[in-house]
User: Fold this.
Amino acid sequence: RLDPAAARVQAARAQEAAGPAAVAAPGSAAAPEPAVDAVVEKMAPGADAALLGATVRQWKHLTALTQAEQETILLVSVVDKARRQIGLFLGILLSVSAVVIALIIYTMTMEKLKQIATLKLIGAPDRTIIALIVQQALILGASGWAIGLLLILTVKDYFPRRVVLEPFNVMVLAGIIAAVCLLSSALGVRAAMKVDPATALGS
Assistant:
């Protein structure tokens, strides 16, 4: 911002350049001068940016920021805040997905308790039964990942803001979904391990 003295000098020069018609009549309210919040300065090649910044900062009401400093402020104040919000939203979605997958796997396991008991009765090892349940959870997770990826690739160009989907992020998300599916299958595996093989002989 310009200090009051500089603002008065600038206003007087503008009135002199405009002529007598621009001078306000006695008793009338003159239009306020627009405030200057920021000035962009392009330096000559080889100029010392640090020296210029130190010179500007000699005035207490002025400061100087380089392009790198402006980008840092933007990243901290805007981009980092948006990243945290998206991370929180993603964490909530993953938690809800884990609960949903766990309930689905548990329900499917409870519906097949007699078949699981038959497998145990004929001597199937526990690792085979666990593998079947884990495969169901991974299939559910892979299906959701593929559908979500296809949906993102289809509609990302219509977002109001640009969306960049990098292959590394896709693979990291796939790994997170696989871990969530493995944890979610624990409830179904626990129910399957408690099945008595004698249940297969019942009605």
Remarks:
- Helices lie at 4-18, 49-56, 67-111, 113-121, 126-155, 167-184, 186-193.
- The CA atoms of residues 85 and 157 lie 22 Å apart.
- The two ends are 88 Å apart (CA to CA).
